[in-house]
Specification:
282 residues; alpha/beta; Nucleotidyltransferase, domain 5; globular
Length: 282
């Protein structure tokens, strides 16, 4: 394969070295009977996933100089289904926390939900309408630490109550952190059901109430971190809407987007905004 011109979303050599050990170990466990390693380099597969995440293009519109849709989707789905995408994400999350001089796992989590429109091809059976926000689509729930790093993700139909997202997130937080999280901060959309569920798992769920005298958007202590993370994720156009047929694919997209963010953060690379990209292109 001839050398191609890099895309802004491509992993640098240093960034690839952070991910490569996990991918190589996975590849060694999934050798074909004939021993054939496949026609596509694993780094290019990851680059194709990140390109689609960043640009939001359809599978059929992947550039011809990246691996084809069939190969890229095969690995995306395989890593989604066996949790490799989360393993890579957790591997980098621990490194980012360590660099920030924090323990590997957090003691506090911040929970929130976001309703996003679903694309036309998304099955109606997995979508709904959020009556409060009047958004038809899906509800994306995040739990993040005080650095804004993702601890847990859940994706439900938009009509699902925040309690459903909250209990699912609390379960994941307890599982993904080995029980180190002792406190979770939520907004008023989460009700007593989440608080009671957290208590059973040893997590104190605190509701941060909005000051009724505040006009417009006012960042709330601690909770602003999850809002910041949502803002960072929206820089990845595949997450502006929910284009995925399976909610599990939507979850995987969040993990890949944050993996890209953390790889750049660990190597001192800035993530270009859409405006910056347009200026360079122009």
């Amino acid at each position: 394969m001839s050398e191609r011109r890099p895309y802004p979303s491509d992993l640098s050599d240093e960034q690839w070295s952070l991910i490569e050990p996990v991918i190589t170990a996975w590849k060694d466990r999934h050798r074909s009977v004939s021993g054939h390693q496949g026609a596509c380099a694993m780094r290019e597969i990851v680059n194709a996933i990140l390109y689609q995440s960043r640009t939001g293009c359809q599978w059929a519109y992947l550039p011809h100089d990246l691996p084809p849709k069939s190969a890229t989707y095969y690995y995306f789905a395989a890593w989604r289904d066996d949790g490799t995408d989360q393993v890579i994400h957790e591997f980098l999350r621990c490194q980012v926390r360590e660099r920030a001089r924090r323990l590997e796992d957090p003691t506090l989590a911040v929970l929130d939900t976001q309703s996003v429109h679903a694309a036309a091809g998304v099955p109606a059976s997995t979508t709904g309408r959020d009556p409060a926000k009047r958004v038809p689509g899906r509800k994306r729930g995040l739990a993040v630490d005080v650095l804004g790093l993702v601890i847990a993700v859940t994706v439900l139909a938009a009509h699902a109550h925040d309690n459903a997202a909250g209990t699912a997130l609390v379960d994941q937080v307890a599982e993904n952190t080995g029980g180190t999280v002792r406190k979770a901060v939520v907004d008023q959309g989460f009700k007593n059901q989440v608080t009671a569920h957290g208590a059973r798992l040893g997590i104190d769920v605190e509701t941060v109430e909005r000051n009724p005298q505040n006009q417009g958007f006012v960042p709330q202590p601690k909770r602003w971190r999850v809002e910041q993370t949502y803002g960072i994720l929206i820089l990845h156009r595949r997450l502006v809407r929910d284009y995925e047929h399976r909610p599990s694919s939507s979850v995987s997209r969040v993990y890949w987007a944050m993996t890209h963010v953390m790889a750049r953060r660990l190597t001192g690379a800035n993530s270009p905004t859409w405006r910056e990209t347009q200026v360079v292109a122009g």
